[in-house]
Amino acid sequence: xxxxxxxxxxxxxxxxxxxxxxxxxxxxxxxxxxxxxxxxxxxxxxxxxxxxxxxxxxxxxxxxxxxxxxxxxxxxxxxxxxxxxxxxxxxxxxxxxxxxxxxxxxxxxxx
Length: 111
What we know:
There is one protein chain. This protein has one domain. Helix content is 47%, strand content 25%. The protein is built from four helices and five strands, in the order αβββββααα. The protein has helices at residues 3-19, 73-76, 79-94, 96-110, and strands spanning 26-27, 33-36, 41-48, 54-61, 67-72. A five-stranded antiparallel β-sheet has the order 1-2-3-4-5. α1 packs across α3 (79-94).
């Protein structure tokens, strides 16, 4: 199995666990979203270049926080999954779901 295939499997598993609310994402220092394991971490990035091209992918870090590999989504073969993972993780980081749930609960109690 190639590195790209392995990282693709990691993306799939992170997406499934994120959708099931089994993991908590953190905001990285550069505004992306990351998840930390005991001996490494993964960051999902999504941005738009000045030429209006979307860039989405992952960055792998070692236990010391050093970047060891950057893999664009098209190289992993998981563009759609990465977009969805980034969106869900970003909502987790910002607390969007909790905020919407709280607003909905308040509005329903007020009725």
